[in-house]
Amino acid sequence: MTTVNTEPLLRVEDLKVRFYTLRGVVHALERVRFTLNRQETLGLAGETGCGKSVTARSVLRLIDPPGRIISGRILFEGRDLLTLDEATMRTIRGSQISMIMQEPKMSLNPVIRVGDQIAETLLIHERSLNRRTARARAVDMLAQLGIPDPARVARRYPHELSGGMAQRVMIAMMLVTRPKLLIADEPTSALDVTIQAQILELMKKLVREIETSVLMITHDLGVMAETCDRVAVMYAGEMVETGPVRSVLKNPQHPYTRGLLQTVPDKANPEHPLYSIRGNVPSLLQPPTGCRFAPRCEYAMQRCHEELPPYYHLEGDHQCACFLHAEKAEVARP
Amino acid sequence: MSTTRVIDKAEARRRRREARVQYLRDSFVLWRRNHLMVVGTAILVFLLLVAAFAPLIATHDPYAQTLADRLQPPSMQHFFGTDSLGRDIYSRVIYGSRVTLAIAFLVAVISTPLGMAIGVVSGYFGRATDEILMRLSDIFLAFPKLILAIAFAAALGPGVENAIVAIAVANWPSYARLARAETLAVRNNDYIQVIRSMGASNLRIMVGHITPMCLSSIIVRLSLDMGTIILTAAGLGFLGLGAQPPMPEWGLMVSDGRQFLVDQWWVSTLPGVAILIVVMGFNLVGDGIRDILDPHQRQS
Amino acid sequence: MQTSPQSRPPAQIRRPDAPPPREGASAADPLLRIRDLHVHFHIKEGVLRQHQATVKAVNALSLDLFAGDVFGLVGESGCGKTTLGRAVVGLAPVTAGEIRFKGRSIVGLEGRAAFERARAIQLIFQDPYASLHPRKTVCDLVGLGLKLHHLAEGYEIDERVLAMLERVGFSIDHMYRYAHEFSGGQRQRIALARALVLHPELLILDEPTSALDVSVQAQILNLLKELQREFRLTYLFISHDLGVVRYMSNRIGVMYLGSMVETGATADIFRQCQHPYTRVLLSSLPSLDPDAPHRGILLEGDPPTPVDPPPGCPFAPRCPEARDRCRSEKPVLAPRADIPTHLTACHFPHLG
């Protein structure tokens, strides 16, 4: 590849986010930590409420009151995004870091033609362009996304498009500025399986061409297995395991990851009874002290209920926050 | 496997009560947060107390005329002064609160169920029923409410009872429209389909399941309308179509003082202030009540 | 309007592990028999309500469901599976065709007969956040059926409701609370309790776990399996997820654009699926092994809408193997190989 830049593109350190609601304080994120290298796709996996979307929005500094980022560092190309002022942040959003959301039709302005919406993204970040050039580039982008008759589609309104088409427009809008980091928040959850396959294939191709790094948020383990190089698993606001996708899926180290993998019907073992993790996700208003998974964990020790386990470094860039590894592994430095 | 589990009846009753108490407790918290609403509620409570304890608070008989003391300014004997027939205005305002409350209550009780029933039936059955009922309500809605009320009151003849009927008749179409809109919104929701698939009759669905969903917007609308209802009643009274002398109705009192507005301002103004305060109270409560009734506010 | 040829009824299936059928049905007759069902919605626009287009949500569909089956109905959005479920319980109007439950027609029922059907056939809705009345307590929600059908009075309703709630994992603490206090998985369990308290024979589940997380899905699916055994239920399990359908069902039917394109025993279909569309769906099953990624077959274009479908095979426009005959002649659902219970509607099926 090109210049060897081994500095990670994005490094999140001990991110803590709280929401101050009427019912109390929601401890949404607790010391979340992960790294995203250049031209890598990192999957952020976990179930509803685990904090994946909050993490994504924190990177873009889109956490509005009653939420607040309490502490931590978000280093993008070495700069801590949490220290920048809003004006600088705005130059970064959309041009260096873009985000695709789950429901494409809801993210597009219903009264503006889709081609114009893509063009607008360009015009915001490249002041020198004129409208005509921006529109032409928008049409080019649509063609790159495999949309037949892109000029005609560019003149349509969002409601005239199907789900798959709308998501393609979203992707066009977010990639037209060739960002360094693309955050994809459940990009295919709202789509049918056949369309999902198309969109994922498309995303992989474009990501390679534009040399973007991707933070892929999903609850679908199959999507993760197929698209990601590395995976970070979250549970109830905490990062429990990170590592290369092969490692984590074939050799999960955290009891939650293990449990999660067993709840999905697997192509290889279709008759195997589905394991369900007993208990329920804890309320983040009064999170348990110690490891948040401890109340449901079959390996829980006394220590697990009292202290938060540190991240232990296992072999091959595989990290796990669980006391089960206390004996054998060393604590990972941030 | 047995199909029943014995519950202690007392236990069941207790738990139901607990759930309701929790609901009220949450409502209280939401109420307390809205300061304007608290003020509005205070005003209405005050009105109720005044009406309830009128004989104890009033200083004179509201009907007693003392012509020698006519048009006296406010003083220690007559807190609000006297009117053109020497009656104590303060006592008349106090007793007038009863009349105001009665009018507000009765108009609500007549127009709201009528409007809701027509609206829900119209929205639920649609097509021909909807067309006919809505055209009927359109006829009523085509006229400004006050004009319509005046017309009905004039047709029915003077008197508070007729005024109440006239105002109710002018009011029901707004509630019908509102109920119909809510019904249309709710009618195709899954939870109504569920109930249909269980075999419930249309009547049961309308009364037991759709009407509760309309209630909150109707209550909000009614609270906000209260002010207008009272003003309409006062207007009718002012025009001589509603309450008749010597009844201490506030609108009538304002009308009585018309000729003396410049020199003996207290005859019209003080009952007018009473109207102002009560209407404001209803408006403040109406604004705040929506938040309390909205189930989304309670989501944990 | 074209009439499509009658499809031949599927032959009987012997299921040695099926529970004994309930009284009133013989082992040979299907519990639910759908023949040539059409559910069409006419779009009328304009002042004179002129007919503009017809949405053929369900188009000449036939299906047999035997007591004790878990029949998985698979398809993507627009295929008509939800409409089919609704038509069976009377929430969608049937344009033509027949639906027979235990031999008796249940199409266009009114009044008393519709009421009776409700006791025997229940539908679980897809969106747990929309299917529970926001102003009713859990006890009211679950006990509604009992009250309507006069199966219990007063506190007996509460008692029966509690028994069922405990069966699905709740306690008396939850009984008098409101729906908004519960999560998606819990709501689906409440919906299940609501349907089961009437002891129906047939339960139609419309994507019951699509809106839920995988771990909650696992809980619900396991619960469904237990309940089926315990209450001797028959399920029509509607889903877009083949993996889940494979886990739950003993028989599968694949729908595309309102028609059934392939149906048969789960094992048969997974061993040798015959219809090109089924092959595409199967290839899209995710593999959790990054060393053996699945090679999904990519289709061109978007799933079509059921408005005025073209003549011929509904899948022809997107089928990678379509030929001329496919575009003009609609294939019949019939056995194409030697297994009489494995039926496919394709002129050129894959036969191993």
Molecular structure report:
The complex is a heterotrimer of chains A (334), B (300) and C (352). In chain A, β1 (10-21) and β2 (24-36) form a beta hairpin. Chain A contains twelve helices and 13 strands. In chain A, α4 packs parallel to α7 (163-175). The longest helix of chain A has 18 residues, at 193-210. Chain A folds into two domains: 8-96 and 179-331, Rossmann fold, CATH 3.40.50; 103-178, no CATH class. In chain A, 49% of the residues are buried. By secondary structure, chain A is an alpha/beta fold. The mean pLDDT of chain A is 86. Chain B is 73% helix and 0% strand. Chain B has helices spanning 9-33, 35-52, 54-57, 89-125, 127-141, 145-156, 160-187, 190-197, 202-239, 250-256, 266-293. In chain B, α2 packs across α4, α5 (127-141) packs antiparallel against α7 (160-187) and α9 runs parallel beside α10. Chain B is globular and about 80 Å long. Chain B starts with 8 loop residues before the first helix and ends in a 7-residue tail after the last helix. The model of chain B has no long low-confidence stretch (mean pLDDT 86). Chain C is α/β, with parallel strands linked by helices. Chain C has helices spanning 81-88, 111-120, 138-148, 155-167, 184-196, 214-231, 242-248, 266-271, 276-283, 324-328, and strands at residues 32-45, 50-65, 70-74, 96-101, 104-105, 121-124, 202-206, 234-239, 251-256, 259-265, 334-335, 343-344. In chain C, the strands form two sheets. Chain C has an eight-stranded mixed beta sheet with strand order 6-7-8-3-9-10-12-11, with helices on both faces. In chain C, strands 2-1-4-5 form a four-stranded antiparallel beta sheet. In chain C, β4 and β5 form a beta hairpin. The radius of gyration of chain C is 21 Å and the shape is globular. The chains are: A alpha/beta (334), B mainly alpha (300), C alpha/beta (352). Chains A and C meet through α7, α8, α9, α10 and α11 of A and α6 and α7 of C.
Structural descriptors:
heterotrimer, A: 334 residues, alpha/beta, Rossmann fold, 2 domains, four-stranded antiparallel beta sheet, 12 helices, 23% strand, globular, B: 300 residues, mainly alpha, MetI-like fold, 0% strand
